[in-house]
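OP here, attaching both records as promised.
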Amino acid sequence: MNKRFTKILCVAVSAVSVLGVAFSTGCSKYYKGEKLTGNIFTDDEVESNGGFAVKKGDYIYFINGVEGYNAVNDFGTPVKGAVYRISETDLANHNYNKVDRVVQQVAYSGNYNAGLFIYGDYIYYSTPSTERDASGAVQNTALDLKSTKLDGTETLKEPYVQLTDNTSQFRFVEENGKVYILYVETTDEVTSLHSYNTADGVDTVLAYNVGTVMFDKTDVTNHRVYYTMNVKNYIDDSNYSYNQVYTVTASATEDRFKDLDTSKILGWDKEKDKYVNCGDLVFDGRGRTDEKTPFNYDYQEELKQSGYTYALQTYQSGMLFYTRTSKHNTIPYLFALKDADLTSETLNPVTRNPDAEKRILSYSSSSDVTASSLVYIFKDSKLDFVLNAESGGGITINKAEYTGDDFKLQTKTSADEQNSLYYNIVGSSAGTASIIHVDEKYVYYTLGSGTSVNRIDYTGKLSDYSTNVLPSADSDFDPVQILNIQASSSWYNPEFIDGQILFASATTQMSAYNPIMACDIKGKSNKDIEELNEQFNGIEELINDTFSDTDKYPQASYANVQNALRYAFYTGESRSVYLNDLAARLNDKVEEDGDPVYSDKTLALYDEFLAPAENNLWKDYIDHRNVNGVEVYANRLDYYYCVLGEMNKTDSENYIAGLRNSYFVVESEEENTSWWSGLSTANKVWFVIGMVAAGLVVAGGIAAAVILILRRNRKKSPEKRRRRIKVDLTDDKDIDVYGTGEGDGGNRE
């Protein structure tokens, strides 16, 4: 077969093959990632579902650092903000860099009440849209709700749902074996509650034109949600002075008002008015002077109430907490409703309204009740007490007092009042607290505007607490700050998994990069943590106190030693990596009789820092642990907490560069003393113009000379020129074309 034809055929086949792969990839509904190995697909319970770090089986899946919605989000590109995993074994052994990327896009939401969800074999999350508008601008302010298989092989290209506002509330929940997305979206100033069935792709409007939507605060996988609805007077296009409370689950599909005869509603405009509601009416606040509408409960008896307005406070542990005011009583009364009461046949949305005497607590104003400040603690399915991060400062316990099944909380009459049912566990002088996590024993919190992480045991009695701000922790009933860790205040709250705190770091030198860091406090009491604090803080104190003694450590011999040791504290970097070369360059510039910038004594102390021993300054820091496969001593940052996951290349390089600029002497640029640098800008411009002009003149002269020479040679050349021999270079390899003597023929014997 002709060789040329063969080549054409091969190229054509290759092209068809490439197009086939491209076509099949383009038609696939998934991005294909590299398959991860391990014991991935299990039936194990999921821990911390909905947070930024979620555990299932042998792995913890986490968002790899704080990334914004405007980051490049093309599949396969993101490192920061992507979803990674680490095995529970590697987490326990502090192998924090042994991670795998699972989701190769940025996991992001402007609403930090919902993060990563795992159901079955898939991880569900939100990510900034990569769609482009007609002008090519990326529409990254929209939020795509998607999923990826736990082994990383399948990532949805098209989202289940796209939210136009990336701060919208949403949840991935499971009901009857199906995964739904509950989400709230506002369009044309109307807010609606939706449910999207990921199995069949059906989006249902659960309620149109809702007020407050209350998802479960502590169990973000709960498929039940409560919401308020106004009742509209269509005659004058206004709302009645009362409202209603409804509840619905994700699987609901039936609009309760689909057969509503709107022709009988005075003022109804079929062109603009709309009412959709799949929920069950929990409370109807219609008062005795309010006329009945098709949206009220069909209650036949005479109403006694004067019209109620409900404000949802929190929903957790199967109990809705809400306040209620009326036309004649504007003081908020706090009530509670159990999910179990919704199915009671003896209760209806009118008679379900409790009498005022059934209130849990009265507040002086609605501002005294904030969902974020109250954490309800249950024991054996009964409310035990409420933790209150009070606006006046500190944290209090307010115990529930029961009479049968009814309970009340206590009213604090004085800021200094302490009794067995209502007392401080963190003193008010500590400043305003924000509760970030509660487990079976400890409450973790921040203070003031800071982001430090503190904790105290909340299970004690009044007599157990001294209510000092931050005393030296002698017991778990004394509050303690956990090292100097600073958790980002504008992201998800820290996660507490397998005895380790995972947090987006805003600590010193890390605030610009916000990686995820891990701090192992497993099995440590507050007293243990206080001792750890003293050890940690002692590093800086030792550096300062030791080298401030200039008689023993004169600056001439120990120049810049303190900052060099601080650099070693952060990095653990051998001086052979950078410091040796820096010292040599800087010392070479020192005059002959001058003091070195980095002396041999300084460098020797740098080495001692990295290898604490009984006979050197760091003898109290010889404790060590393996971190990322390296032995790390107790005078190193990584001994206490360390980056979890992978920093992207830019952040990693900038972090090291920032530390070097902070703690090493910065080399000054050599002064340029050449004649060029001495010229003014104007003179430089005229010099360039002159050189260009001179170049053109020279080039023109050379061209003219070449032309003259060619013309002269042409006249001297013969009329008939000898024809060159044509040599076929394609097949005959025995011919030494270039006369090198290295052809095949030349090698024959």
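Record two, same layout:
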Amino acid sequence: MPNIKEEINIKELYGTQCTLAQKEFLEKFNVNIDNGLTAEQAEISLKNYGQNEISQSKPKKWYNYLFQSLFSPFNSILLGITLVLIYTDVVIPEKPSYANIIVILVLVIASTLLEFFEEFRSNKAAEKLKELVATTSHVIRDCKEIKVPIKDVTIGDIVILSSGSMIPADLRIIESKDLYVGQSSLTGESEAVKKLNNSELKLDDIKSVTDLDTICFMGTNVISGSAKGVVIKIADDTYFGKIAHTLTTGKPQTSFQKGVQSISKLLIKFMLVMIPIVFILTAWKHAMLTAFTFAVAIAIGITPLLLPVILSSSLSKGAVRMSKKKTIVKSLDSIQSFGAMNILCTDKTGTLTEDKIVLEKYLDINGDEDIRVLKHAFLNSYFQTGLKGNIDEAVIARGIENKIDINVSKYKKIDEIPFDFSRRRLSVIVQDDNSKKQMITKGAVEEILNICTLVDYKGEVSKLTREIKENIKTISKNLNKEGLRVVAVCQKNDINDIKNFDVNSEKNMVLMGFIGFLDPPKESAKVAIEKLNNHGIRVIVLTGDNAEVTRCICNKVNINSKKIILGSDIDKLTDQAVIRILRKVNIFAKLSPIQKARIVRLLKEAGNIVGYMGDGINDSPSLINSDVGISVDTAVDIAKESADIILLEKDLNVLLDGVQERKKNICKPYEIYKTCCKLQLWRSNISYNCKCFTTIFTNNTNTITSAKFII
């Protein structure tokens, strides 16, 4: 849950709208479910209320980047010295001297412009990527269902929701069927929440945002089901918008930023101590003005004037070279963390695997191929509504390949019981030309077994015995060991008398068999991981998939899978116990987004520089908490917003190229030292040889960790 400065009064904001009965709500707010707003009404509403954009998420202006670069820690010190020099070199002397001021200002401007142009360019490129995949929402206007950009959704719009939809604004649900919404981005709870047409609450029962059962919030997403909702709040007036304005924590500082900041603080403290001491020691021998001028000269001498320019130029050079290798750098400081990271946390799907799921097998209860199993799975996937996932697309593709789609016109869909994470299954009810109804269900093997009492083997139906159950589990586990994700398929025919179908209808079903999907490992993944390991980067896999499939894939890409820890085990352990496990274990399976974020946090607390690669809405907490968040151009908006670096290819080799570029070209201590030693610094007619100006101490990853400045 976000850290919020002030309590948001949920009852006052949403209580009445939540608890009003559906009919009363429609009458009170004059809502027309079927027609929606007219084009003129929508235009007037947009003029009155503005666009549906959170002010903090709007793109930064050019001057935001400029001021951010200008007032960096080192530049702030140099600007402070400039103010003192204006007094000592211009105001006090009879003949003003501007030389020192000009030198320092040139250095400040150079470092500022280098950082400004690179960050501005990279962030503009990232914004263009977001525009290419701009999120839209389905609304009803002028009696038609149309797609509009989320920023154009306005008060009074009727929004149509289905599985996979993003909630574009705060909505009051007016029609729904088995609607489950994921609110983890707001509440931290990974469990999907059911939303209703009519609230089961009274006004006094509402204590927190999680109690609201008829309100959907901007920034959340539909897990399963379908619904219509009326927009009641947009932009900054939404719960998400109010949280955005009251957040007290942002992205944590990286080790590099902390290092630069600590050096800046050390220099300031050193000057505050040195200047009075030098002034007191020289004031009794020389005039006050001379003593003060000398003390200021000492302050200038101990300040690494060229360091901001060197850092900015090195980081900018690295960002330019990385951009040529399909990498967009949103924050220059992140390049250092990118190259210095010693742990990369990544998901399995799409990074280690091709992210192209293929239906490999369709088997009966004894593990033999059976086209009838594919036929039933095809009807289920073909007729389901909402967002079709990779599994459904793979089933449909294989069905078309086997010409099953030719007979699909004989069926029509009667009803559907959408997928949700508690049931882990989806049912479709179809009717053929002979008016025979059939319920077809597919889902996780364990969940399907729980609702089946019979099995079908070669057209003969028999009782599902304990022995058959154990054999089915064994077959499923063996398929998992081969790297296949397994989904079970069942059906029921005696349903002609059922009028309204719901989850209670999913019982006494007949098990047909399994369908097995393969997401093969990338050919390049094994070599890339070996190279990352050779560069001192340990790869840790954090996935929501089951342990057996994960072990198979990890074995093929040469990641040690001797021990796999499950999310359920993590929850039972203290932070210290998890840290001990993290020293030895590289694979964590069946993880929730909250568990992933916890692992990233603990790795950082153990002294590691952690990179996290993710592309989903639930990856946002981990992307923010890592030292360097890495996303891809096809990721959801919130993932790209949270990331520091965006890859134009979801490939570990692109990561490796970026790491190598950084280590070749960024923060090379020898080059920095050599550059400094070629210069003669002069301040107030005092010349300093730079042979001892700056000494850089580095660790084994070429990361600047401390600096000693000697006059």
